[in-house]
Amino acid sequence: MLVKPRIFHSFWSKPLLQKRFGQPVAKQLESTLLFTTIGVIAAKRLGIEIVLHTDDFGAKLFQQVPYDQVYLTLNGHDIDAQFWASGKMIAMEHEPLGSCHLDLDAWVKGARCRDLVFGSTTDLVVQSVEDAFNVYDPNKKFVFDQGGVDISGHIDMRKARKSVEAYNCGLVRINNQQLKDKWLALYWKIVRELDRKKPPGLHERYCIPDLVAEQWALFQLCKQQGFRVQCICDGYNHHQKAKEIGYAHLISEHKYAIDDDLRQILQRLTAQQ
Questions:
Q1: Positive or negative CA dihedral for 8, 241, 126, 1?
Q2: pTM to 2 decimals?
Q3: d(Cα 93, Cα 28) in Å, to the nearest integer?
Q4: Do residues 12 and 109 touch, judged by C-beta distance below 8 A?
Q5: Which contacts (CB < 8 Å, 24+ apart) does range 32-35 have?
C-alpha cells in the first residue's frame, strides 16, 4: 500500500482527436489544458503526488504541466475511440494498489477531500452513485441485446439486468486487489467483445457503452460480491457535499464553455504559489 497520497491522471489522445462531444479539436485541447493544470496544481498544494499516463501526443500537450512523472503507458493503445475509458483502465493496471485515478476535469482541492479519499480503508472509494435510467437503460440494451455480450461469468445478470445504478468514476481509488482484478477483467470482457463485433449503432452520438463497462459494471460487482464502498459525495446532495469537502467535477460539454472562468482560477492559484 502507498505511503504518500498518489493521484494518477490518464489521457489517451485518440477519442479527443476524433471530436468527442462534437467540439472542435483545438477548443477541446485548450480547455483540457486549462482544467488539467488547475487540478495538478491544486493536488500538489495538498502534498499529493500526481502523475500522468499518456501517449506521445499527450506528453507534448501537457509538457508544461507540473506533473511529478509522465509515463508513455498509452503509446500503441489501439481500440475503437468509443471506449474512451480504456486509457484509464490501462493506466490503472500500471498503478500500485491505493493510487487514486482522477479524471482530468475533476479536482481534489481541499484537505478534507484529500483526507477522506486517502484515509479510507474501504475496498473502494468513489465519487458518488448515479441513477440515470434514460442514460443507462438504452446503453445496457445496446451492450447486452444488440452487442450480445455475455458477462454471466462475472456477475449475476438476473439480479443486475434491471438495475440502472452506477458509480460516477470521476474519482476512484481501489484498496482491494481482488476488486481491482475483477473490475478490470469485467471491463475488458465487455469492451473487447464490442470492439470485435462493432454492432450497428456503436458510433451514434448517444451510444456510450463505456458507461456500462466502467461505471455500471463496477457498481454491480461491488453490490453483488459485498465489497465495501465509500462515496465521498452523498447521493442526491452530492454537489453540496463536494463543495463542503473541497472537490469538484466539471460537467460534460459545459467544461468547454468556461475558459475565462478557468483562466481566472488558474491565475489565482499561480499567484498563491
A1: positive
A2: 0.94
A3: 27
A4: no
A5: 32/61, 32/104, 32/105, 33/61, 33/62, 33/65, 34/259, 34/262, 34/263, 34/266, 35/104, 35/105, 35/107, 35/250, 35/255, 35/262
pLDDT of residue 237: 65
Q: What is the structure's pLDDT at 61? A: 96
Which residue ranges in the chain fall short of pLDDT 50?
none
Helix axes 217-225, 177-197, angle to 10 degrees: 140
Q: Report pLDDT for 238.
A: 73
Residue 273: per-residue pLDDT: 65
pLDDT for res 21: 66
Strand partners, 126: 172, 231
Per-residue pLDDT reduced to its tens digit, 188-237 = 999 999 999 999 999 988 899 999 999 999 999 999 999 999 999 976 56
CA neighbor of 47 nearest in space, from 3, 98, 1, 9: 3
Cell numbers for 46, please give them. Answer: 495538498
Q: Are strands 100-102 and 124-131 parallel, antiparallel or unpaired?
A: unpaired
Distance between CA atoms of 28 and 143, rounded to whole angstroms? 28
Quickly list DSSP for 231-256. ESS-GGGHHHHHHHHTEEE--GGGGG
Instruction: Give burial (CB, 10 Å; 0-12/13-18/19+) of 119.
Output: exposed
Look up residue 121 and give its amino acid.
T
Place of cell 434514460: 134
